Each structure stands twice: as structure tokens, then as C-alpha cells.
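Weekly modeling sync, notes
Attendees: S.R. (lead), two postdocs, one rotation student

Agenda item 3: backlog of single-chain predictions. S.R. asked that every request posted to the team notebook include the full sequence so nobody has to chase files. The rotation student volunteered to paste the first one in as an example of the format we agreed on. Action items at the bottom.

Example entry:
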Amino acid sequence: MSAVVDTPQEPMLLRTDADGVTTLTLNRPGQFNALSQAMLEALLAELERIAEDSAVRVVVLAGAGKAFCAGHDLKEMRGNYTKSFQQALFRLCGKVMMKIVAMPQPVVARIHGIATAAGCQLVSMCDLAVASDVARFAVSGINVGLFCATPSVGLARNMGRKEAFEMLVTGDFIDAQEARRRGLVNRVVPLEQLDDEVAKLTASICAKSPAAIAMGKRMFYAQLEMGLDAAYQMAAEAMACNMMCEDAAEGIDAFMAKRTPVWTGR
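Predicted structure, as returned to the notebook:
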């Protein structure tokens, strides 16, 4: 396991690579993987590197220790009590979230424990999410006098408005099955099966055309912000462009010949 960012004690962010899958592990277990400024900077830098690496097909985002991520580092925020620091911190957080959406590789959240506040936001902004049956989710800033404004962006785009707003104004936890019912996560499995389930999902993605996945992810998020007519026009153009890709020709030919396709990524 390689260290991406070092502190005097131990790496803050860990990276492993295997079979086209890169796993990034938030590694502040003593602070429940709180998103300090340094952690966000490390995460953004690594996501930017991965986005340019065609050998990486899928990214898994995980957490060390008992929690997935407990949100922002309140101690750091309180210790830097200026508006300029807070503005810079939340702009940085926004860049991380938008990078997850913009990068060509699907990003899968692996949630084994609690995901609260900005940690819950992180789950909501990942393309896919697999949770253990003991994971719990909350946007708990309201409990300390903070409305979780930035997490509300991702929550409102994953679940119904009233369900999202209830979480935001109560700070109450929901369990993994309820998170799945609301659309925050894709799959829920027993904790001991979590890694196998994540591996199953990432293997399925890695078996597909990287060109189609990248093009499809870009189109999917762009059309969400459009009106219906404009969305269909964009989707039609994306389909036409996709059909001109080498991978599409190979995939269709392989399907008709009843053989396994060999993807080129073009």
C-alpha cells in the first residue's frame, strides 16, 4: 500500500492499484477520517492524477478505522475562525466533489461505518455506493448550529426533497437499508461481504468498454441539468458519437460472432 500524502505520524491518504481498480483510503482513523484541508487537498490531487490515467478503470473510495468519514474537521474549522478560511475550505470541498463527477472513471464509495455531514456528502457525490448493513448516515451539522448546506446539494440529487430536507433539519441517522430505499446507496450487504460485493461491482465495470463508460458518465451528468428536449438532443449526439468508436464496432461484431470483445478504449 503506497502513501500519497505523508504526515509526521502516518499517511493521510492511501492508494492501492490492482486489475484496473484504484482504491483510495481516507486514513485518519483517530479523527474518524475527518476532511481536513490537507485531506481534501490530497484527495483532489490524487483524483486529478487518476483522471489522466487510462490504466485506471474504476476508483473505490474507502475509510480506515471505525468510520467511513465523519465530515469536516470541526476542530480545525474552529481553530481557524475567519471567514476567508471557511470560504477557501468549502470551495476546496466543492472542487473535490465536482472532480468526482467530472473524471471519466466511475467512483464507488465503500461505506463500512458511519458517514456523516460532509462524509455523507461524499457518498452522495460518488457515482455508485456499496454499504455494509451496519453503516449509518446523517447530515448532523444542524446539531451544532450548522445547516449542512454543501451536503444538501448531493442529498437533494439522490433522494426525494422531503426526505433530504428532513435529514438536514433533524440531523437524525438513517440505517443502510433506509439509505438504499432513499437512493443514497446502490447495494447493502453484511459487513463481512462488503469487499466481495465491491469487487463484484468493479469487475463488472472493468469488463465494459472504457470509452463507452467515460462518454456515458459525461453525458449522464450533463443531461441531468437540462430540459427534456435538450437532454434528448444531447443523448442522440452521444449515441451517434459512441457508435463511431472502435469499441462499439468491436462490441457489436463480438456480440454477433458470440465471442468476448477486446476493448481498445477508442
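Discussion: group reviewed the output briefly. Residues 2-206 form a domain with the 2-enoyl-CoA Hydratase; Chain A, domain 1 fold (CATH 3.90.226.10).
Action items: rotation student to repeat for the remaining queue; S.R. to check formatting next week.
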